[in-house]
């Protein structure tokens, strides 16, 4: 067959040609090339164009690239749709913006094009953050198209600084252009600013060298081609101008207020100093003017890790060295190896890291062990999908050993992704001790645990009902079953079925009595196909309607079985007809009924979900196809009695999305009753504490009503069960059945198992044949051993002796039973000791509206998006890679647009961690509002500015004293802030010890914001100015004592500032490790040679050291601050933004008058007032003063006469009075309307009441002000 013919413009190639040529390279067979100035055929056509071997002409790069691409480039199924979406994204978003930026037209056109390009790159960067390629695990046409679209800006426009915000795009771009097929077409790609200077091509389409074949030599462009390109440029410019005009009109419509808001966008500052990984960050330069997470978080973590700060051996000869501060050990709940970071992980990491850092700073031998779970089902599903996508083969076609090699290969490629993400959150784990549940050390512990428990009779084999996933062909645990609630008839998508399947209906049909066919019993079911496995009909023994049926039977219409009518009090006489069908092999309740009445179990579903043990035509049908077939057959026989809606819960496999079936299977079980009794008693005795205490009731409920645990899974990936089925080549020993536990032995090796079998059957080992169980153990079994298997159990070791039992287990309350209880039971059974002494359970993270996070709602938040920020377009792009159907996708987009209209701003790791800990009120779910996280980002900026002021105030020559006691003349403000510091030190330590994270964050936040920054820093500014000799001695009513006194006061202020900053950073360090390390490293040291090198290992403030609490002094300062707040309120009422009015204080008690005089300088500074005088007893303030009561001990008079323009103020107040009057009249009329209380929602009524109260209070103030101003005229 002739090769296709590809028509291209003369070189150099543009993005369209490059895209087609690279796709052709991947296709293998090179098309014949022909260089033309215009498209072939009768019309001008679009280039590139392709003439297929069949003679069909495909015009345009999209069609040509599609034809030349092999199937692997186009994707399969859902991936194919994603490839098409990314191709459309490149054509509609990237290419136009790239063309305009490369042409550099200047002005608003170029600026707008750059903004468009940045927005597109932000969306692309967000999508690529957890991915290697755009779609799937290999290059697709999406990667080719987007890469070619970015060539021009990356080579000629975007320098290193412009590329820096998009690290994931840059990583992916460089990986793509260095693929062999890319290099063959593009040649070496040199980025802008990294090689020889290069100017952009004259035309936006000219994008670089590279071609296929000798025809690639450069040729001059024809006149017609140049004319066409000029028209294209003109069209693009008109489009851009039209777009700019539209956007300008929108911007104008939004008003100037919006523009002011945009000007307040948070800036991004990057750390550009070259710091090799593991080297200490250079903080010798000047501090940036404002806080930037990207600057602050750079370079610290590799240095912490390199220095070994997170290891328990740090600062001691060995972990076994006695430590009077004790040992703190905790293990990370091992996330799935398939997982990526979500808010649950972020919450766990924030809480656990705060505890680990706090104990480490307190001097305890601290170990926090990371780990990763092999996630049997999840991992096998991921690898099976990849195998099918890449080679079109199943695991069964590949074989078990080869498939397991594929899984290990995938694990080596992708398995540590979540570790890198956890490091981004600053988690201080000992990564050298990281464990994977399939590591040899842990696998040996799993085998040992199974064999020991089996030998003790705690593990046994039995045939029982299990949750069965037909798609996975495996039993699954309860936690892997999602319960989908239906209100009635609902059509659901089921994997493997093209048409949706009906659920939520109750179908009634009749069974005819054997001895009298005219009589019938009507039963109802929601799973009609299972009636083929019915073995009885049950009625309540006291139901008067069915007393005549005792001892009688019905005939099955399809199988011919004779079904007894049994009487059992489990039947609900009010449900349906009061008669129920009994299918023991496919329903848990029916199974128990069958056991009580000795009924047979007839299995009618195979592992794949096809009907078995049934007559034709149902035999071999798929279960939900059989549902319809049975219904039609019942109708044909006249046995159908009706259908109605029925609210129900459908069990869905969380991994495969298949409907779960109860199936009878021989499985391995752990006998839990005795183990659970020991776990419950440990809590009752107080040996194990569960916090919050409310969860103990759940613990006892589960432990006291526990059922045996099914631990076998029909998978290949996981710990293969070390159990062997025995066949004895001896006629005296009858052959056994699979479900008969007597024919199963366990062993650490096959030889050990054979010896056990020989002893059990009294034969020689040579006559024993063994077959190892194909199944693997439930993932929760290996996770249950985690607290001691990570230290090498069952082998004795120093680490096992020192760190087991652990100190604390911190996790989400949703896995209290699935993981925590099993760790406790297995720890007691295998080691005789509890695995930990305390359990702290955190809440579930929900969105700001209290809704569960769901992709279909668009409210799932990636923590790294909060850390780095993401645009709304980027959030939308993330949805495109999900498996949502179009309706869900649109709803999710609207949800994102509603919650994040401007995207998510960059908040930084510290702000996210602090917010998560601050939210963690015990016993409540967490409604995470990104706005609150942003508030803590602003708090970081407050820290930054406070530290900048302090460092400037200290000066480069400052050296702190060795002791905490300040030098110089200590003033009232110094005593007060030291007292407040003592209080917050005690509060933070007590709160962290009690796992009260909101109390700790509130105390630290309040000290920094309201005590240190808002009050003390403002109080010491005049003191420092006088100490430096550039202040007016009488400027604030103090400082008459001369230079020495001023210098002594300034020295005390500097020492106090240093102590507050140093201790304040230590208090925050467990929650905000990056910004505190950055600022602490810039502080001078009390002992430069002996102080710790990092804040990570510096002592946490101890209440015994910071013991300066002075309640009397705090009362005096609080009295002064009450006066300040009153003065500020008065200034705001009269709009005195710049004027400094004089103030007069009336204090009826001499003691408080003296205190007011003592604090007068601070009051003047903080309230920005002029002269301040405390009136003598009986003395009146001058006329023209506004009056307010600060407290029962002080009345404040602010002199307005001569400060405000009375006539002007009178007119303004009069207008405001009229406006408030109209507002009050409207509100009162609204509330007095008939049926207001009945028709208006309660929330609106509450809002109206609040508005009314606020307006009345403001009107009262306005009337008082009017009266005052009128007296001044």
User: Quick one: biggest sheet?
Assistant: 7 strands, mixed
- Overall 3D geometry? globular
Query: Terminal Cα separation, in Å?
Result: 104 Å
Task: Provide the helix percentage.
Answer: 40-55%
Number of strands: 37
Give me the number of helical elements: 43
Please state roughly what percent of the residues sit in beta strands, choosing from under 5%, 5-15%, 15-25%, 25-35%, 35-45% or over 45%.
5-15%
What average pLDDT do the residues reach?
Answer: 86
What does the radius of gyration come to?
38 Å
Structural class: alpha+beta
State the low-pLDDT regions, or none.
Answer: 196-223, 254-264, 1031-1041
Can you offer a commentary on this structure?
The chain has 1273 residues and is α+β, with helices and mostly antiparallel strands. The strands form 12 sheets. Strands 14, 15, 16, 17, 18, 19 and 20 form a 7-stranded mixed beta sheet that branches. Strands 2-1-3-4 form a 4-stranded mixed beta sheet, with helices on one face. A 4-stranded antiparallel beta sheet has the order 10-9-22-24. Strand 3 and strand 4 form a beta hairpin. It is globular and about 115 Å long. 41% of the residues are buried. About 4% of the residues have low confidence. This is Valine--tRNA ligase. It comes from Apteryx mantelli. One of its GO terms (molecular function) is ligase activity. Pfam families: Anticodon_1 (PF08264), GST_C (PF00043), tRNA-synt_1 (PF00133). Belongs to the class-I aminoacyl-tRNA synthetase family.
């Amino acid at each position: 067959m002739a090769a296709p013919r590809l028509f291209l413009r003369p070189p150099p190639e543009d993005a369209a040609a490059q895209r087609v040529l690279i796709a052709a390279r991947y296709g293998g067979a090179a098309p014949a090339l022909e260089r033309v100035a215009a498209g072939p055929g009768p019309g001008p056509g679009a280039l590139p164009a392709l003439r297929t071997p069949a003679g069909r002409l495909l015009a345009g790069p999209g069609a040509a690239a599609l034809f030349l691409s092999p199937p692997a480039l186009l994707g399969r199924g859902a991936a194919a749709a994603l490839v098409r979406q990314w191709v459309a994204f490149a054509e509609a978003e990237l290419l136009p913006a790239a063309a305009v930026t490369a042409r550099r037209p200047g002005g608003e056109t170029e600026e707008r094009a750059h903004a468009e390009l940045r927005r597109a790159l932000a969306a692309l960067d967000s999508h690529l953050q957890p991915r290697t390629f755009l779609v799937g695990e290999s290059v697709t046409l999406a990667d080719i198209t987007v890469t070619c679209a970015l060539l021009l800006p990356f080579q000629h426009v975007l320098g290193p600084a412009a590329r820096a915000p998009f690290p994931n795009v840059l990583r992916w771009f460089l990986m793509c252009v260095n693929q062999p097929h890319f290099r063959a077409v593009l040649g070496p790609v040199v980025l802008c600013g990294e090689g020889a200077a290069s100017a952009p091509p004259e035309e936006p389409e000219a994008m670089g060298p590279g071609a296929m074949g000798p025809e690639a030599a450069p040729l001059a462009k024809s006149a017609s081609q140049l004319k066409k390109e000029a028209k294209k440029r003109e069209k693009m410019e008109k489009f851009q101008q039209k777009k700019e005009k539209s956007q300008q009109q929108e911007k104008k419509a939004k008003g100037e207020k919006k523009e002011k808001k945009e000007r307040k966008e948070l800036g991004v500052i990057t750390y550009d100093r070259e710091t090799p990984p593991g080297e200490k960050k250079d903080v010798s330069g000047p501090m940036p003017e404002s806080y930037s997470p990207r600057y602050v978080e750079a370079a610290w973590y590799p240095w912490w890790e390199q220095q070994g700060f997170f290891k328990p051996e740090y600062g001691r000869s060995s972990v076994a060295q006695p430590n009077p501060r004790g040992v703190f050990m905790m293990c990370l709940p091992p996330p799935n190896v398939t997982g990526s970071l979500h808010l649950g992980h972020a919450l766990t990491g924030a809480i656990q890291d705060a505890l680990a850092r706090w104990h480490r700073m307190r001097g305890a031998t601290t170990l926090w062990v990371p780990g990763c779970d092999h996630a049997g089902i999840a991992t096998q599903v991921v690898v099976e999908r990849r195998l099918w996508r890449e080679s079109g083969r199943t695991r069964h076609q590949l074989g078990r050993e080869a498939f397991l090699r594929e899984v290990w290969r995938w694990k080596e490629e992708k398995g540590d992704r979540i570790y890198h993400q956890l490091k981004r959150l600053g988690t201080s784990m000992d990564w050298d001790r990281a464990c994977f549940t399939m590591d040899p050390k842990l696998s040996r512990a799993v085998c040992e645990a199974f064999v020991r428990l089996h030998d003790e009779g705690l593990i046994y084999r039995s045939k029982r009902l299990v949750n069965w996933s037909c798609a996975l062909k495996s039993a699954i645990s309860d936690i892997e079953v999602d319960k989908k609630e239906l209100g009635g008839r609902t059509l659901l998508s089921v994997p493997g079925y093209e048409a949706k399947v009906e659920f939520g209906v109750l179908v009634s049909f009749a069974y005819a009595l054997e001895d009298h066919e005219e009589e019938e019993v009507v039963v109802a079911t929601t799973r009609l196909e299972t009636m083929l496995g019915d073995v009885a009909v049950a009625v309540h023994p006291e139901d008067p309607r069915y007393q005549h049926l005792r001892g009688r039977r019905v005939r099955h219409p399809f199988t011919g079985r004779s079904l007894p009518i049994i009487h059992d009090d489990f039947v609900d006489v009010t449900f349906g007809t009061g008669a129920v069908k009994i299918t023991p092999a496919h329903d848990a309740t029916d199974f128990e009924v069958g056991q009580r009445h000795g009924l047979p179990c007839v299995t009618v579903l195979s592992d794949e979900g096809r009907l078995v043990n049934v007559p034709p035509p149902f035999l071999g049908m798929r279960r939900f196809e059989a549902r319809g077939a049975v219904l039609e057959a019942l109708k044909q026989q006249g046995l159908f009695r009706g259908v109605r809606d029925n609210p129900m819960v459908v069990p869905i496999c969380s991994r495969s999305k298949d409907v779960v079936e109860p199936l009878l299977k021989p499985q391995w079980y752990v006998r839990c009753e005795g183990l659970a009794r020991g776990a419950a008693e440990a809590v009752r005795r107080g040996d194990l504490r569960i916090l919050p205490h409310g969860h103990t009731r759940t613990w006892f409920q589960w432990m006291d009503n526990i059922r045996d645990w099914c631990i076998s899974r029909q998978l290949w990936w996981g710990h293969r069960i070390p159990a062997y089925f025995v066949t004895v080549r001896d006629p005296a020993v009858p052959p056994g059945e699979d479900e008969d536990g007597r024919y199963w032995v366990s062993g650490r090796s096959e030889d050990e198992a054979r010896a056990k079998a020989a002893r059990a059957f009294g034969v020689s080992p040579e006559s024993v044949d063994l077959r190892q169980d194909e199944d693997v153990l439930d993932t929760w079994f290996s996770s249950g051993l985690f607290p001691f298997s990570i230290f090498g159990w069952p082998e004795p070791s120093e680490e096992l002796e020192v760190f087991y039992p652990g100190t604390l287990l911190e996790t989400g309350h949703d896995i209290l039973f699935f993981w925590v209880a099993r760790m406790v039971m297995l720890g007691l059974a295998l080691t005789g000791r509890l695995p930990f002494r305390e359990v702290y359970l955190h809440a579930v993270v929900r969105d700001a509206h209290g809704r569960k996070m769901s992709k279909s709602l668009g409210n799932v938040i990636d923590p790294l998006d909060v850390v780095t920020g993401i645009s709304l377009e980027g959030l939308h792009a993330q949805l495109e890679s999900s498996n949502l159907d179009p309706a869900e996708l649109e709803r999710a987009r609207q949800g994102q647009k509603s919650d994040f209209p401007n995207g998510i701003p960059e908040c930084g790791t510290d702000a996210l961690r602090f917010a998560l800990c601050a939210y963690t009120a015990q016993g409540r779910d967490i409604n995470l509002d990104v706005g609150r996280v942003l508030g803590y980002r602003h708090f970081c900026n407050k820290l930054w500015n406070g530290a900048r002021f302090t460092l400037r105030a200290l000066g480069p020559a400052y050296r702190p004293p060795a002791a905490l006691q300040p030098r110089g003349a200590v003033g009232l403000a110094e005593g007060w802030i030291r007292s407040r510091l003592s209080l917050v030190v005690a509060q933070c330590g007590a709160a962290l010890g009690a796992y009260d994270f909101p109390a700790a964050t509130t105390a630290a936040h309040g000290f920094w914001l309201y005590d240190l920054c808002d009050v003390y820093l403002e109080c010491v500014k005049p003191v420092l100015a006088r100490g430096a000799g550039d202040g007016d001695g009488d400027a604030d009513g103090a400082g008459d004592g001369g230079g020495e006194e001023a210098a002594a006061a300034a020295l005390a202020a500097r020492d106090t500032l240093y102590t507050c900053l140093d201790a304040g950073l230590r208090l925050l360090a467990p929650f905000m490790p990056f910004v505190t390390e950055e600022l602490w490293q810039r502080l001078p040291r009390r002992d430069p040679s002996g102080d710790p090198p990092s804040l990570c290992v510096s002592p946490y403030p101890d209440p015994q050291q910071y013991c300066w609490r002075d309640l009397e002094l705090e009362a005096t300062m609080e009295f002064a601050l009450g006066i300040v707040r009153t003065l500020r309120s008065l200034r705001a009422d009269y709009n005195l933004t710049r004027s400094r009015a004089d103030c007069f204080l009336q204090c009826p008690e001499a003691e408080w008058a003296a205190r007011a005089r003592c604090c007068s300088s601070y009051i003047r500074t903080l309230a920005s007032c002029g002269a301040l005088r405390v009136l003598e007893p009986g003395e009146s303030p001058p006329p023209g003063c506004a009056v307010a009561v600060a407290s029962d001990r002080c009345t404040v008079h602010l002199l307005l006469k001569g400060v405000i323009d009375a006539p002007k103020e009178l007119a303004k107040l009069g207008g405001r009075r009229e406006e408030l009057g109209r507002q009050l009249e409207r509100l009162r009329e609204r509330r007095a309307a008939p049926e207001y209380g009945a028709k208006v929602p309660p929330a609106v009524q509450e809002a109206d009441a609040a508005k009314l109260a606020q307006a009345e209070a403001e009107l009262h103030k306005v009337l008082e002000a009017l009266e005052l101003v009128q007296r001044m005229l």
